[in-house]
Every structure is written in C-alpha cells, then in structure tokens.
Amino acid sequence: MRFSVVFLVALRALRRNTMRSILTSLGIIIGIGAVIAIVSMGNGTKARVEAQVAALGQNIITVYPGSFSSGGMRGGFGSSATLTVEDAEAIMAEIADIDGVSPEVRDRNQVLANGLNWNTNVYGESPDYPYIKNWNVVQGAMFTEQDVKSLAKVAVIGKTVVDNLFPNEDPIGQTLRIRNLPFRVVGVLDVKGFSLFGSDQDDVVIIPYSSHMRRVSRRTSISSILVQGASAEKLDVVKQRIEDLLTQRRKGREPDFTVRTQEELAQTATETTKAMTVLLSCIAFVSLAVGGIGVMNIMLVSVTERTREIGIRLAIGAHGSDVLTQFLIEAVLLSVLGGILGILCGIGASELGSIYMGFPTLIAPWSIFVAVGVSTAVGLIFGFFPALKAAKLDPIDALRYE
Amino acid sequence: MAPVVQIKDIHKIYDSGEVPVHAVRGVSLDIHKGEFVALMGASGSGKSTLMNMLGCLDRPTRGTYKLDGIDVSALDRNELADIRNQKLGFVFQGFNLLARTTALENVELPMLYGRTRKLSTSEIRERAHHCLEIVGLANRADHMPNQLSGGQQQRVAIARGLVNEPQVLLADEPTGNLDSKTSIEVMGVFQRLNDEGISIVMVTHELDIAHYCKRNLILRDGVVVRDEAVANRSIAAVELAKLKSAEAAAKLTASPAAH
Fold it and tell me: Exposure check for chain A: N or C terminus, fewer CB within 10 A?
C-alpha cells in the first residue's frame, strides 16, 4: 500500500473523531508547550545573565591580594595588603596581549555636595576603567593619566550619586566633598543598574587611584588590579603570565595574590539558571510522557473500536504491516499535530510571560526541532503497542467482533 | 480445464478449548469456473469453517486446498493475504463496509492493498466506478454507507468483491440481513455476474435463496451429505416480476395502470 494512501487513511480516521483527537493531543500540546516555554525562559534568563556579565566588561582578569597570616592566625580572602601600584605598573609594562590596567582602591565614604550628603562607594581607578568595564561616560569625560600623575581632585560619578546629590542640576563642574576634600565632577557614567549580586552599580564615585591613596584613604596598597585582556583566546595565557610575573616580583616569598578571570565568575552565575532549566525541563518531559500515555490509551481504544474495520482490511488483502503502518501514522500524526500546536502555545506562553510578567524569554530554535522530534518519537513509541495489537488481529475474529 | 477450487480431504480441528472440536471432517470438493454454489447446513455443521478455509482466512489442519492451481494450505499469513486480495472477493452478511467512507472509496480499498498490480490513482478510481456501474450504483458513488439502504450497501460490497477480478466470489449469507425483495434483487446481481462467467460460492441457510444457485452442497457434522445440481432454478428477474404483480394486487404499491 502506498504511503500517501496510508497517510490519507490515517488522517481521515483522525478527522472522524475530531474532538477526541484534540483532547488526546492536549497532553502532547501541554507537554511540548511547557518544554518550549521553559526552555525559552531559561534561555532568556541565561542571555540576560550573559549580558550582565558582558556589561561587567569582557576578558577581564582581576588580581586580588592573598590572605594574610600572622602567627598561625589566617585572615580571609583578600585580607592582606600586598598588592601595590608597582605591581600594576609592572603588569602594564611587561605583559603582552593586554589592553588596559586599573589599580583599584575601594572604600565607602560620606560624600557631601549642595548641602546634601550621601554614603557611597568611592573607587580609586585608572583612566582605563570605563574601557575595561565597558562602561561609558555619557556626560563630560573620564579623568586622564595626567590627573592620576598630579593627584588631581576630580571625580566621575554614577547616576545614583547624581540623583542624590545633584537632583535638579547638571553635575558637571560641580564640587563634591570627600573627607572634606573638594573634588570637581568631570563626568557622569551611563546607567548600569544592579549587578548580578544585587548591588547598585550606579552608586559610585570614581576618582584617580593615586588621589584616593594619597588624599582619601591614605594607604600604600591597593585593593585589586583590574586587567583587560586583548582577546578571549589568550586570557588563560595572560593570566598565567601575570601569575608568573607577580611570583617573580615576590622573589621567592610565598605567593600572596590570586588571579581570576571573568569566565569563572560568569560560570557560577549561569550555573544556577542552568540547573533551574534542567529541573523544569525534567518536569516538562514527565508531562510529555503522560501525554504519550494518553495517545497510547486512545489508540488502544481506537483499535478495539475499529476491530471490524481492521478485519475487513485484513480480509481483503492488507498485510499486518499495512495495518501497523496505518495505526502508527495515526499515532504519530496525533502527537506531531499536538507537538506543532504545543510549539505555538509555548511560543505564545513565553511571549505572554515576557509581556505581562517581565520574564526574559528567548525562543531557542533548537528547542523547536527537539519538540518536533520528541513528539514524533512519543507517537512512535506509544503508538507502537496499539498498532502491533491491531496488526496481530486474526481476520476471522476481527470480522466477527461486535 | 482444471477446477478453480480443488479441495482434497480437508479437516479442521480446533483445540483451543478443553475438548478438540473436529469442525470439518474430510471434505473433498471441486468447483469449476462459472459455477454458482450454495453451501448449506445447520449451525454447527461446519459450513462457516469450510467457508473460512475457502476464503484463505483459515488454514486446514489436514488436507490440501488448491486455489487456481496454487496450493494455499502451506502459505503464510502475508501470502494468504495476497491470495485473498488477488484471487478472492468477499461479500459478508453484515456488509462490512468502512463507515464514514464513500461507496467509491470502499470499492477502491482492495486495489489499495494490491501488491502485484500497481495501479495509478486514476485507474483505481475508474475501475471502482466501473464496478459500481455493474451493480447499478454508479449514481451513489459519493454516498456514505449510512446513506444507503441495506440492499444498496450489499451491492457496494459486491462491487468491492469484484474490483480485483477474483477467481471466486465468496459470499457469507449475503441476504441474511435483507428483506425478501431486496434479497431477490441481490441474488439477481449474483446471477447476472455468474452469467458473465464469475464463479460464486455462497453460504446460506435459506432454501429459497439456495434455489437461485446452480449447485447445492449440504453439510452436516463436518461432512458433505448432499451435492446436487439445482433443478428448476429460480431466476431473479422472473421472481421479481411475480413479486411486483403480487404487491400490486395487494395494493402495496400502485399498479402501473393507475397512473
């Protein structure tokens, strides 16, 4: 029997019971829809996290000071004051494949301006900082290398600080006071929003690291060194070179620093989303299996109901394989049509989710292919047993069946 | 000429139950081309079992069955299916048409399962239509079975049986579900087909229906107890005319003179 004919016969059989076919497919529709929606939400979240990580800057290597230990008592990570500006300068001068370096000094200070005051992060950085962090100065300009050298009292500030200290005016050229020292605002940074870890990244005042060390915090060591690698491929090599250089600079003393890359951070951040997606996908696949059982159930009913029809077909010359194919195609059609509707529902659900509930969604093309594949497989697997039952019927018994 | 059906001492024993049932106990039978045989017997006489074996739906426990020169007693399930498809036509008591499928599509069905002859879609359609014409239902081709009367449904079934040009048309109580007038009409169709040279074997328990055939076989307890040619064979056309005038006399239908 020609395949196209079997296909037509199967389609006709499904159409005879439109309502039942739709209800049977519902299990598959829900299953596939759930898979598509969940994967697209997981994907969207992943993309958002990746965007946030990218917003932190790309190919960044950070050098942290090691932990200090004294007489057996060990401080925590980054507790020792062993990184110096010289370390940062050495990295800049001696290591290839890097695009920028910023020695960082960080603390919190009460900042005053305009008769208002605000407790905020005060970062000492190099002029490379906006470039490394992929963070544009939207108003005014970043301070320069010259400002670093001259310990200039200039500041570039974040949006939150602008809102709190200069609510209704242009902050450029205004003065703010850190520890009673006047700093002139030369730039305003673009809005960056909250970080992956929930802190307000715009709540910041950035000043030259030299000014921070000499005028504000009066320290000789730095909190960390931010290094911009030239390319993602060479990041590990650069990391290794930094470790070697700093070890060499320690002249045989135990290494008192840690070097980390951005990827390690990004990995941790995406790990959670991934776990969530896997978990939810498992649930969706369970519902798909339940849908498959629904298909099997209805196909069994259908085989019983149409025993006489099967008897007629066998009597007039159908082979068992013809009957098997017919019922298998019916089952596959049921589940694939369900799958297609499910894909549409899933896309619809994820769209609604992103419009009304603000879920970031991104429909993954592969998930659609997988959905079609899986629904075909469900039809084949769960349709096989009923189809086999039909194919094995004895024509005499089947014809006599009431 | 070799007989179309050649049965030698076939037995059928069912041992599915506690006691083996010996349903057919050594039947030998030759049916030649152009014969019209009625197979009769009380229930339990083995006529259905014999019919199933004739129809290649069941295999004999012992003995040989040659259909059109082919020994079918040794064929497997699929080979039997092909034999049924190519050499046999079936007409059942309950019509057994596919529901919600047009008359034409029902008639097409055996051709769809044909493996030896590959026909194009238009050829299939044409032949199905031709067979419906033979049974006088060309104008009902697009009707569903539930839109047809019993007699019409049975004629569709006959058309389906004919469509692959079988060696033998097997009919299992074809008039069992029909009233007497429709039965005669259906027998008329069979007689016409037989006159054109088609061999027919039918099971019936009605003596007057058997009278339309050329040869009557009586089965009892699994053996043939009587095998004779029909004398004074009924002719459907004549019987129908008789019935019509009787009906007219009884005012069941209007007489042609009244109009």
Answer: C
